[in-house]
Amino acid sequence: MLDILSGLSLGIEVTFSTSNLLIGFLGVVLGMLFGLLPGLGPLNGVAILLPITFVLPPESSMIFIAAIYYAGTAGGAITSITLNIPGTPMAAATCMDGHPMAQKGKGALAIFTAANSSLIGGTLACIGFVFLAPPLAKYALMFGPPEFFALMVAAFACFGGLAGKSVTKTIIMTIFGLLLACVGMDVMTGNARLCFGYMGLFNGVTFLTAVVGMFGIGEVLTTIEKGIKAKIIHPKVTWKDYVESLRLIYKHKILVISDTILGFLVGVLPGAGATPASFMAYGFSKSMSKDPKEWGKGHAPGVMATESSNHAASTGAFVPMVTLGIPGSPLAAIVLGGMLIWGLVPGPRLFIEQPRFVWGLIVAGFVVNILAYIFEVSLVPLLMKVLKTPFTVLTPLIVIFCLITGYVQNFGMMEVVQTLIFGVLGYFCKKTDYPVSPLILAIVLGPMTEWTFRQSLLQGGGSPMIFVTHPISFVLLLVSVVLYGIPITRGILDRRREKREAA
Amino acid sequence: MKKAEIFMASFWAALSAAIILEVHYIPYTKQPIGWEKGLGPQAGWFPFWLAVIMLICSLIVLIPKVIRAIKDGLAEEKAFISVEGFQAIMRALIPMIVYVVTLPWLGFYLGSTLYLIYYIRAVGKHSWTLSLLTGSIFSVSVFLIFEKALKLTLAKGFIEPILNQFL
Fold it and tell me: Fewer beta carbons within 10 angstroms: which end of chain B, N or C?
């Protein structure tokens, strides 16, 4: 308890400096913009804006990223409610009840309900973070290379078993990412690997070219093809709606709290992240409710369920990232890559070696949550105007930002071309249902995965038995096998049933 | 979608096959893929076996699709992309490629300005005022942020001597 209090006071000292608060506010504004714009979410925002942080100290960078993250998640709800297009993937579930509410003329109520639920979900999840992360980190300090290797495999399995449509496609993308991580100099022997005789690849493929290519350019291409044609419903905003939303949330307090807990736990598990969390919370609360027929027709608790859980999950995803070095969501995977560039080693030692960073992040979670909330609630009419920004103006701006990001990795044209190639590849992957998130996770964790694998074998005298004799690693590997096994057996059973029905 | 699915699966299969060749068979890039006694895998072991698994997985995706295509023909039940969608993508992609190809000569500042003006005016069909304003304001702010504030030097192309006077 005492550790937590002293940690929090350190975090407050870090966060409440003028420059960090300013950076946080800037992050809130930018994150809100990314959240509002349909087709782009906090994930794209973080991917595109991450390079800006490389000149900042890690604490400030993390505050900036957290601000984009929270504000983007919050802003997405406004788009879902007024446009019926998810402003962010996390807010997709909010469309189901949010948009019908707007059609009924209760748009402002829906927006305020969303904002208040997000604030509650985000804040409670931050409290959960404070109590869960330090003991988890302490426990993980006992881990050696075999345990960490098993943990990475489990993370890949979570992404594969829970998130993807087809396991085989997920495995292909995971391996592609691991192979991309192998490109360049082998850290243990100095050999040039997978360069195809081309020394331009000796420095390896930087993960940011893949990230901005796929989540920036690839996303833009997908959005351009779909085209955004939707009518905005402009709600009339009054303070009465604000008070009414508070009253409604108080009435459904148990629902909000249980969905926050559900969202937080789903967020902590690697792989799932905020999008599935919000759908799960929606389904859970609907099945528990007394009047399930009202849901989907503009029922305020529907908005509460999705918005409280997606904020809680966003926070939860940082827990394994900070304590174990395993990201809990695709976005956390990008942030993890950023941490490596900032010169931090994610993992349990972070709490001991970088207390300013960890506690700064935790306190910043509370602060940017509140900043994003105030910004959103006080400026709803202004934020609605952002939705009118034509996509044809945004497209070239995003493209240029992505390519500049690619360029500054190494100050060479090679990376610019790489970014563009990843963009086109990302578009094709998206269209043919090859999930991009496992690829990003694999590029980020790839070097660590191989390194811990080879370290464990050195430790075990070249025998792979070391993964079985260490109990934690054995259990984790078993879990991974089960996670990959579930969807595979389900697929085989489905196919058999189809054949039987066809015959 | 059939053709696109087959194309993508073949792409992964070809890529993994190329990696297997690169790691183990081409003399110039070959890596040891063995398992050293007492030490564990050599440098090429990890990429080699990953590529093998990837090849197997892409064949698992590819082969049933090819068999079905041979049985039912390649007629598409759902097009990969609509004509309008394809045109929209090309309108965005071609300027993007031109921008990247000309980058070494024009540099980021001139290139971005021209790209923005062209895209907003010709593709977005917005007014000249908006396209010129966005183009110039964006490039000037990127210059101020990157060159002045962050001290990151972007490629400037043939106008480098002119721009350097402002540093």
Answer: C
- Residue A97 to residue A120: CA distance in whole angstroms: 19
Q: Indicate if the pLDDT at residue B132 is higher than 90.
A: yes
pLDDT score for B131: 92
In angstroms, the separation between the Cα of residue A313 and the nearest Cα of chain B is 32
Q: CA nearest A372: which of A133, A130, A121? A: A121
Residue A29 sits at the chain B interface (C-beta within 8 Å): no
B15/A457 CB distance under 8 A: no
Residues A332, A336, A337, CA angle at the centre, nearest 5°?
A: 120
Question: Residue B58 corresponds to which tokens in the numbers above?
Answer: 């892409």
DSSP, res B27: T
Cα–Cα distance between A241 and A102 in angstroms, integer? 12
**Are residues A302 and A98 in contact, defined by beta-carbon separation less than 8 angstroms?**
yes
Decide if B25 touches A, using CB distance below 8 A. no
| Beta-carbon separation of A431 and B120 below 8 A | no
Residue with tokens 């970088």: A354
Q: Choosing among A167, A229, A400, which should be mutated to test the B contact, i.e. which has the most B CBs within 10 A?
A: A400
Task: Yes or no: say if A169 and A435 are a contact pair by the CB < 8 Å rule.
Answer: yes
Q: What is the pLDDT of residue A259?
A: 92
pLDDT at position B96: 94
Q: How far is B78 from chain A (nearest CA, A)?
A: 12
DSSP 3-state of A37: coil
User: Is the Cβ–Cβ distance between A205 and A180 less than 8 Å?
Assistant: yes
Containing B40, the helix (H) or strand (E) segment is strand B40-41
Identify the CA nearest to A285 among candidates A311, A254, A314, A313: A254
Residue contact B81–A397, C-beta within 8 A: no
Pairwise CA distance, residues A157 & A154, whole Å: 5
- Series of mean pLDDT values for 10-residue runs along chain A (503 residues): 81 86 92 83 84 84 90 87 79 86 88 92 92 88 89 82 71 92 82 78 81 86 79 80 90 92 87 79 85 85 91 89 84 86 85 87 90 89 80 87 84 88 92 86 87 87 86 89 80 79 72
Beta-bridge partner residues of B41? B35
Interface of B with A in 87-106 (CB under 8 A): 88-89, 92-93, 95-97, 99-100, 103-104
Q: What is the DSSP secondary structure assignment for residue A233, as one 8-state letter?
A: P
Distance CA A287, CA A269 (A): 23
SS3 of chain B: CHHHHHHHHHHHHHHHHHHHHHHHHCCCCCCCCCEECCCEECCCHHHHHHHHHHHHHHHHHHHHHHHHHHHHCCCCCCCCCCHHHHHHHHHHHHHHHHHHHHHHHHHHHHHHHHHHHHHHHHHCCCCHHHHHHHHHHHHHHHHHHHHHHCCCCCCCHHHHHHHHCCC
Question: Which residues of chain A have a CB within 8 Å of the CB of B46?
Answer: 178, 182, 450, 453-454
C-beta separation of A29 from A71 below 8 A: yes
> How far, in whole angstroms, is CA A474 from its chain's centroid?
28
